[in-house]
Design goal:
three-stranded antiparallel beta sheet, mainly alpha
Length: about 160
């Protein structure tokens, strides 16, 4: 599952820290890099967008600033194809019998659909965990990050 490992009751990510000395830090899988809101809140925004809601209505639903929600949705939209590739690769690593995912015509919807399928496959193998925590761990906290989303997918073959 990407750069994660099991510790105690939850999956924790390990990646280089941005500190003067260098080194590693642990970031809970309930968060994303450089985001104040939890991955569950951001995930709710992404799902609402996939269901057709606009950024203003999503912001009102989540009681978050419009500019914040608009940024999340834009960033995910820009990364959706790479994330779709990443989660498709993970799905097939986690479940060799997974069937082809039906394309909907919306790259955002497709990415979210395969994310859910990969999270379900991981839950079958490793036990139940919230899908958004899986998404955070699998993307190394970069679900909305600047790094290329399909970097990990290239290393799963």
């Amino acid at each position: 599952m990407g750069a994660g490992y099991w510790r105690g009751a939850g999956l924790v990510q390990r990646r280089p820290a941005v500190v003067e000395r260098g080194g590693d830090v642990d970031q809970p899988v309930s968060t994303l890099v450089r985001r104040a809101d939890t991955v569950v809140v951001i995930g709710r925004a992404l799902l609402a967008k996939a269901e057709g809601a606009g950024h203003r209505s999503v912001a009102a639903l989540l009681d978050r600033p419009v500019s914040t929600v608009r940024g999340w949705l834009r960033r995910f939209g820009a990364r959706a194809e790479g994330l779709r590739v990443l989660f498709t690769a993970l799905l097939h690593v986690l479940d060799a019998s997974a069937v082809a995912v039906v394309v909907t015509g919306s790259v955002v919807t497709d990415a979210l659909q395969v994310l859910g399928l990969a999270a379900a496959a991981a839950a079958r193998l490793f036990g139940p965990r919230p899908a958004w925590q899986f998404a955070s761990a699998a993307s190394s906290g970069q679900l909305l990050g600047r790094a290329p989303a399909n970097r990990a997918a290239a290393n799963t073959s």
